[in-house]
Amino acid sequence: MRAAADRLPLWFNERARMRHFAVIGSGPAGFYTAEALAKAYGEGATIDILDRLPVPYGLIRFGVAPDHQSIKAVAKRYEKVALEPNVRFIGNVHLGADVSVEELLHYYDAVVLATGAPNDRRLGIPGDDLPGVIGSAAFVGWYNGHPDFADLHPPLDVASAAVIGNGNVALDVARILSKTPVEFAGSDIVAHAHDALANSSVRTIAILGRRGPHQIAMTPKELGELSHLGAASPVVDGADLPPPEADSALEPGQRKSVGHLRSFAASPADPAKPKRIVFDFFAKPLAIEGAGRAERVVVERTVLAEDGSARGTGETYAVEAGLVVSCIGYAAPPIPGVPYDNKLGLYPNGNGRVADRLYAVGWAGRGPTGTIGTNRPDGQGVAEQITALFPPGGEATGRDGPAGLDRLLAARGCDPVRFADWQKIEAAEIAAARAGAPREKLVRVEELLRARGH
Ligand code: NAP
């Protein structure tokens, strides 16, 4: 005899077993989570990927440097996920303003926060609010065509810039500030940044690290790129380097990075190249000064303390800089109704679980560290927790999922952007590309919405 449920029409059974998941953010962490959920549930789940911008890919589009196209190629993998039959991209929907986390938890079985960490951490020193002082999220967003920073207009009419921090973002910023238009061939740097940088007066870029060469957070490939710049030479003062034998205590990647610094120290700056990228180690910013705009960073000389932190020596000096870009890390955006750790700038969680049916992945859950690939196990881990809670094929909770969200967005007059719309936007960007460039990004939300053709 057939069980009662078996006598119901097939569509009813399928619907009854359907799970509904929402992922907030369409960057790497969001797409790896969606990929893992799609794999675990097959056609037994709908997965909606929401983004506040009308375009997908988050950090890949707006964070990864425009001259690092090979890293951006991972978007092709995410595209495959977005084209899965049960996955939807829903852009131009603002969490908080258009829909709340509480509402999403009402419609979906689980909600995964994959917002990334788009907010700059403040330096917190006098003068950090002067014109000309810019956080890396804003500066990187500007050259990558992020709509929020299209009108940044960083001051490039100055001879000297300072980049604060010793991570890969500091390297990206210093490299982009040094490159000539020829070196941007094949990149997707946006026209406004391409043209502004072509006319830049910046000749000296000081990279300020509060600790020493052994404490850098720069990876070898990215450091090595500085040896091949067309118009800039890297400069390292050999006196800042520990004795070579000390490098043996470093792990291999770090040893290689420090090896690059040693070779910069050993090579005189190329007189044929007009720009200098000067590594200033043991230099802790104390204040930024200037008459109505940034003119200099006041720095305290440091030494390494026993615990590895930077200890001030009391000796100070000034580093001329009409542009100051702080590259000292990021924070996730606080979301009403979601616990937030102010110090770490993330949603506190245990292995990704923030609260009942609410999860955080990637930078939103573990802070702004690691490579793009680091987000993959994050997404898989959270997908495993979700499948443990809602075993694939089991009885569903009867939530409305996409139908509920669509009703709510329509009632609120929202104008969501679907993946097919993005494909039209992308086609328009590819058609508008400079010769040799992959695309010319549209940088205003209105332009992006118009490019959908409806
Ligand atoms: P990061 O690697 O954490 O580096 C931040 C730097 O800022 C550190 O050198 C830190 O120094 C310094 N800092 C922090 N607070 C400071 C303060 N108050 N004053 C002065 N210096 C301060 O962060 P990131 O460069 O933003 O990079 C984020 C992540 O993205 C990293 O995992 C990075 O590798 C990755 N990324 C990768 C690439 C690539 O692979 N091509 C490109 C860009 C970014 P202390 O060490 O002394 O704290």
From TrEMBL:
Cofactor or coenzyme needed: FAD
EC code(s) of this entry: 1.18.1.2
Record's protein name: Ferredoxin--NADP(+) reductase, actinobacterial (Eukaryote-like) type
Family stated for the protein in its record: Belongs to the ferredoxin--NADP reductase type 1 family.
Residues holding FAD: A29, L59, L95, W363, G370, T371, I372
Keyword Oxidoreductase: yes
Residue intervals of the FAD/NAD(P)-binding domain: 21-180
Source organism per UniProt: uncultured Sphingomonas sp
Binding site for NADP(+): N166, G167, N168, V169, R210, R211, E222, G370
Keywords on record: FAD, Flavoprotein, NADP, Oxidoreductase
Class in the EC hierarchy, top level: oxidoreductase
Pfam families per record: Pyr_redox_2
